[in-house]
Design brief:
Number of strands: 19
Structural class: alpha/beta
Helix content: 25-40%
Order of helices and strands: HEHEEHHHEEEHEHEHEHEHEEEEEEEEEH
Distance between the termini: 44 Å
Largest sheet: 7 strands, mixed
Oligomer: single chain
Number of helices: 11
Length: 452
């Protein structure tokens, strides 16, 4: 396969032309939208996904936050609360969160996560035990991140049991996105701060320059990963030789997040060549993990017979309190039920012109149960970087089935269900759920839509 084919895999979506019909229409094709589509298909509904472009899910770090947080230093990893304890904390103290607003998360969340693992086998999602604590993973953003689990290429990098050992972070001298010496210093300081008295050590390993004539710093991770796939037989033995010379006393090797378009097989081969477990670091955007997630979602949707149209939903036809059809740029889709999963501001799901609103149905937006309307953006931003930025919690308010509500708590459209980051209370900045809430709300929305 050519490098161009690896870098730009074939598009699976088609162009909408005229009128299409289905049982369930999903607007948005990110993680939540895909979970909704796959969940509805499992219930034997015919499903169409309409999306204008790549979703914000392509910025995925590689880890799935289900119920994270509440590790104020010093708090040794061995004493960290379980995922279930964190979930109950969310249910008690975050009444606006999707786990609280929609369904019965404490009962249904394990089933939703199991469904995601089954539908996305390429990512290697493990079975989640809510009685266990979150994993601890190093990231190119610096320090560590607490998450329920990570994709297979990063999973072996869990640091919970390595607080008294040495790990090595490998990097390329001409790829600044993974500055190994700096990341090692930051990780060591962060781990020792959280675990007083531990003997954790993080060191850097130099892989030399990325073996390409052009400067890799302006190349996308997808391009670099595709280059590795095309040259792995030559490159991996050389890298393994350098790692073996520099990491003799290390118990774990953490690699730059561009180890091939698949990731797991490269890490496994390097582990075999070095005799040490190897894992990719979690990534900040632009992310190869996001590219892998996108490919896994596309593959799953295609294999389940979901039709994907590359188009923009911009209007609708109605009859009473029901949506009859969704009008797109190049046609319309008639559906019995509609799932709204088009994201927040970054993906255009939420907008602000004269007022804050949802972009397809002009649904009102809320923050912690209060309508937003014509208020100014700065009213929802903190002057401190680490303060509460309520603009990221802004979203559509729903009933317990996910149906959007107006300012008087009345259902607006009886056959519309919302999920994912367009929901009120869904905020990546809180660091407490993230992809877990997308999986749960999407899975539940799909089931409700199929039964509706």
């Amino acid at each position: 396969m050519s490098l161009a084919a690896l870098q730009f895999p074939p598009r699976r979506e088609r162009e909408l032309d005229g009128v299409a019909e289905c049982d369930v229409l999903v607007i948005g094709g990110g993680l939540a939208g895909a979970m909704a589509a796959l969940s509805a298909r499992e219930q034997s509904a015919s499903v169409i996904v309409v999306r204008p472009a790549a979703a914000a899910s392509r910025m995925w770090s590689g880890a799935v936050d289900v119920a994270s947080g509440w590790l104020p230093p010093p708090c040794p990893f061995s004493e960290a609360p379980s995922i279930g304890s964190n979930l109950r904390h969310i249910l008690r103290h975050f009444p606006w969160h999707p786990y609280v607003r929609i369904g019965e998360a404490e009962k249904d969340l394990p089933a939703a996560l199991e469904f995601a693992a089954r539908e996305l086998p390429q990512l290697g999602f493990p079975a989640v035990n809510l009685d266990e604590s979150n994993g601890i993973f190093a990231s190119t953003a610096g320090g560590w991140k607490s998450s329920a689990f990570a994709a297979r290429p990063a999973a072996a990098g869990d640091l919970r049991s390595r607080t008294d050992s040495k790990v090595c972070i490998a990097g390329f001298s001409n790829w600044p996105s993974c500055d190994a010496p700096q990341l090692a210093a930051m990780l060591q300081a962060a781990i020792r701060a959280a675990n007083p008295g531990c003997r954790f050590e993080a060191a850097a390993a130099d892989l030399g320059e990325w073996p390409e004539q052009d400067d890799p710093s302006w190349r996308t991770p997808r391009y670099l990963a595709a280059m590795l796939d095309a040259n792995r037989q030559d490159w991996l033995p050389r890298w393994a030789e350098k790692l073996n010379a520099q990491t003799r006393d290390a118990s774990l090797l953490l690699l730059p997040p561009l180890m091939g378009t698949k990731g797991a097989d490269v890490c496994e081969e390097l582990s075999s060549l070095t005799g040490k477990p190897c894992a990719e670091l979690l990534s900040r955007p632009p992310s190869i993990f996001g590219e892998r997630l996108h490919e896994a979602l596309e593959s799953a949707l295609e294999s389940r017979g979901v039709r994907i149209y590359r188009d923009r939903a911009g209007g609708f036809l109605k009859k009473g309190d029901r949506l009859e059809a969704i009008v797109c740029d190049n046609g319309e889709v008639k559906a019995r039920m509609v799932v709204l999963a088009h994201g927040k501001f970054a993906s255009g799901g939420l907008v602000r012109d004269s007022e804050f609103s949802e972009s397809v149905f002009n649904l009102p937006l809320f923050v912690r149960g209060e309508p937003v309307g014509y208020r100014l953006p700065e009213e929802f931003l903190s002057p401190q970087v680490g303060g509460e930025h309520l603009i990221f919690e802004m979203g559509v308010k729903t009933d317990t089935s996910g149906r959007p509500l107006d300012e008087d708590d009345r259902v607006i459209w009886s056959n519309l269900v919302a999920c994912g980051s367009c929901l009120m209370g869904y905020s990546q900045t809180l660091g407490i759920s993230g992809a877990g809430a997308a999986i749960y709300s999407g899975w539940r929305a799909g089931r409700i839509a199929a039964a509706g």
